[in-house]
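Handout, section B. The chain below has 188 residues.
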Amino acid sequence: MKLPIYIYGHPVLREVGVDITPEYEGLSELIENMWETMYFSDGIGLAAPQIGRAIRLFVIDADPMKESFPECAGLKQTFINARIVERSEETCSENEGCLSIPGINERVTRPTTITIEYVDANFQPHRETYSGFAARVIQHEYDHIEGILFIDQIAAIRKQLIKGKLSNMLKGKVSAHYRTVTAPQKKK
């Protein structure tokens, strides 16, 4: 089932996700729905807060990026209860976008290499190191489960330039080819 994507301004996007157990109700169906939603929305990653759940869960399929970024080949994984345990001092800047902030792309500087610990959809533990664009995609989705959006990490001048678009999103004015949920509107 295709789920709606929660848009910038919705409070759930700022919540820090909680760990889950294999007994989390409807987990298999939720993961399946997240994959379907991500593909339908033309994303390469989707975190649970983006579909209204403040839990430590995200899915990534960066394989379509392998032509430009060979390190993304075969990167298709469910990450549960993830923790980034190491980040390189070396950084790199690249353009990023987000399904929860449609129509905005900005350069974000991130560590080039990370080590992450997580459990997969079968709750098997993993500790893996990723570099390059693969590390970027993981960090972007990881930020979501920490209540952080990519626009929090852009230069102040760039933030000023997109202020109008963000303001429109806060007012519920959003254009996307997928279903969305905007922030609750304050009553006048």
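Note. The mean pLDDT is 96. Compare this with the example in section A.
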